[in-house]
Amino acid sequence: MKRRSYLFKSSLTLYLFLIMFQSFAQQKEQEIKVYKSLETALKQPKKVEILHLDHKNLVEVPAGVFKLKNLRILNLSSNSLKSLPGEIIKLQKLEELNLSSNPLTSFPKNFGDLKNLKTLGLAFLPLSSIPEEIFKLKKLKALYLTFNSISSISKQIQKLKNLESLFLGTNRIKALPPEIGKLENLKELGLEFNPLKSLPKQIEKLKNLKELNLSNCGISQDEYKKIKSWLPKCQILGYE
Question: What pLDDT score does 3 carry?
């Protein structure tokens, strides 16, 4: 019964993740044409701002994608991509990139040169740590890393100064670095389904944090109360 309960909660988390990520794009797609075929998009490349190539059985990013200089939203989720080409930086207007559900384990060294990227989906990848290239994305506001195999968080996380939403649920994280407290713009932090026993006191510096998800972690009631005293205005899920 416990196993079935976990699977149900994991499925629910997956559903909620997809809804959250899609909402970012949907708000912008209401009045802008969404292209779901690269062939169609390349007929008017200058007009293409949104391209969805999810569930296309892609093993590499088609070269034609990099001709879409005005592309702002690119969905490459649910494919078979093992790597990204360095040409990705040709998409300098890119604001949202969804790479979830791909066998990606590494990123090109110039990935951090996507200067306008604000939302990055990396859920359901075989990542054991956050790639260093991610920490160079200075304008990043939302980072989805749920359902990976991440066991530790680098102190370089502090470089993502503009981050507002960080989702790390369903990983193998046992501790957060004190540097997490330097993400002063953070509003949402998802840590559910991780073997956490405690959080660093520096988390009290997250004055803008509105929601902290600690559901199904290994945190005791006493530790919950301590965290609540540090973040009195924050809604803590999993705290009873």
Answer: 35
The pairing of beta strand 235-237 with beta strand 165-167 = unpaired
Residues whose CB is less than 8 angstroms from the CB of residue 92 and which lie 6 or more positions away in sequence, other chains included: 69, 114, 115, 116
* Distances, alpha carbon 184 to alpha carbons 14, 29, 223, in Å: 27, 30, 22
In what order do the strands lie in the sheet containing 142-144?
34-35, 50-52, 73-75, 96-98, 119-121, 142-144, 165-167, 188-190, 211-213, 235-237
Residues 6+ apart with CB under 8 A from 180: 153, 157, 158, 200, 202, 203, 206
Could you list the residue range(s) of the whole structural domain that residue 78 is in?
29-117
Residues of the chain with pLDDT under 50: 1-11, 15
Q: Give every CB contact of residue 230 below 8 A, 6+ residues apart in sequence.
A: 201, 203, 204
Say if 74 falls within a structural domain.
Answer: yes
Nearest to 148 by CA among 127, 165, 132, 166: 127
CA distance 129 to 145: 10
DSSP letter at 42?
T
> Which residues partner with 211 through β-bridges?
188, 235
> Does a structural domain hold residue 43?
yes
pLDDT 10s digits, 36-47: 999 999 999 999
Q: What's the CATH code of the domain at 91?
A: 3.80.10.10
119, β-bridge pairs: 96, 142
Q: What are the beta bridge partners of residue 75?
A: 52, 98
Residue 15 has a pLDDT of 47
User: For position 32, what pLDDT does the model report?
Assistant: 87
- For position 106, what pLDDT does the model report? 87
